[in-house]
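Table S2 (continued). Query chain:
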Amino acid sequence: MWFMETYLSTFDSDIDVLTRVDHDKIPEGTIYKFWLHLVTDGIGQPILIPIMIAKGNSPGKTLGLTAAVHGNEINGIPIIQSLFQHIDVTQLCGMLIGIPVVNVPSLLRKKRRFPDGSDLNHIMPGKPYGNVGQVYAYRFFNQIVKHFDYLVDLHTASFGRVNSYYIRADMDDPGTAKMALLQNAQIIVHNPPSDGTLRGAAESIGIPSITLEVGDPNKFQKGMVRSSLTGIHNLLIHMGMLKGTIEPPDNLPVICRHSFWMYTDAGGILTIEPKLTDWVKKGDRVAMLRNIFGDRIKEYFAPDDGIIVGKGVNPIVQTGGRILHLGLTTTSSNERK
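Corresponding output:
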């Protein structure tokens, strides 16, 4: 492409490989797909991340969509693919930037963490002269994320657990609260961004951001993908990037002011009783632990009224195994004390 610097003319099906991106020179009314050379591996070969940019015919906001910050959280990939396959760029105002895989090395290894053992979602925005993961995070954040006006970061549960379709957002901030409510999710967890997350790093430089937790690890779930696409279209309409009618939710989301995981304090064979999005009352039995002979050795009870946001699925647990992720619509009884 004449409007960008490339060091290779083609890589895959005539898709360019770039060392830098000049967003202002992308022609209006086009969708441009390319590989970005972010870092180099141990034998001097480029590590490339896939980028898609849809630029409308009219000026407007820039919405960034990121997926697979963890290598085993892949439900966001078909969400971004589908959005770009079906969007009418001639009707788009502004720019849509999609990164279907942020953590390419870990995706290829089918691992959650970066090859150096770091969690990319806990070291953002990285460091220019840090370790392997920090440099990767820094270059990704500075070359791509800084161009966003808004960010939707797509995640899933990790190994050994499952998630409902829920949103993490700072519900005390009107902008991110509106973004969250437009997603038509089952549950919204009030979660001010913590240091090191992609969402937190983006918000620290003034980019309103939410995290979509879209189902389970290492699988594509069509229902979750459809639900997420509806929410993202709602956001595009709300931002004035597309014309249309915002689709309201079938049911209002449950907004949790607080959430936490319950863990086992012994090892054994675990049976978890509630299903995702079930409500439990304080004192309800939620799990039972047996030893290898089948004898009951422990029962676990809900410490407060709440809704099941996520749960463990591996029946074989050591001490400290995950039981369930409980969302509370009010402060917990412990906090009230």
